[in-house]
User: Fold this.
Amino acid sequence: MRRILLSTAKILISAALLYLVLRKVDLTELFSRFTVTSLFWIGLAIAVTFLQIFVGALRWREISAACGAPLELGRAMRYNVIGAFFNQTLPSAIGGDAVRLWLVARAGAGWRAATYSIFVDRAIGLVALAILIVASLPWSYTLITDSHGRSALLLVDFAALAGGIGFLIFGALKWPWLKTWWATHHLHACAVIANRVIFNRTRGSVIAVLSILVHVLAVVIAWCVVQAIAAPVSFAQVFLLVPPVMLITLMPISIAGWGVREASMGLAFGFAGLAANEGVNISLVFGAVSFIVGAFGGMVWILSAEKAVREPAPIGVPQ
Assistant:
């Protein structure tokens, strides 16, 4: 009953937010912008999305190895593509993570190692996104002149950054009880692994580059969408506005981020002095691109052997 209520709440949130933002959008006018050239840009956006998934698979592969759940690159890519499908179908923006966890555990890594690999991968990605936004703050402040917009940007970003830094500091603590108390044992183990991965002399730089690249590619996807609908927005504006919206969309309060992404994009564009409806238009087409890629992931899932039920042979996580 609890899961049903949570899922229902997320569906209602997505529906309510979409209803509110779509009242300000002329869908007929949006569809009239699509031309033959638009198909090229949409195709490019889909291709870049698959590239983003591949880069994410490279990062996840590095992190999973440190968690005691080694993955071949092909398997990591397949699981990520399948995860993209479930991101669109499960009642959360991170539903694909739960499915990836399940797939890794059933493949023989065990539930603990699988959970650690997904959690650490998500945490490192969040820290990288927060750092990217902080690094661009001088230019964001020039673009966003509205005081409320600036306050919202600072609040969201520094909350994420503080959480990420706090997580890493937590992993650096040496108190023995953190490793034995049930409330901190697993979180501390994940934080230790995250520190081990990030501050590794060879692996750390690779993880950093891949993590930033994942978020830069999200900006490139949005830019392809801008070109597809001929929106009057520059690449610099997209680069500054999209990452904070992606950060907000990570909150698991809606279906695949629908509604939250559109409302956030509209607000971000409004705070930057741009047309709010253009932000919503870009977000809608961006979501459509994700949906198309998710459909490909659905086909991979249907044709995959992972649906066959089999018991895993647990692999322990190194201490």
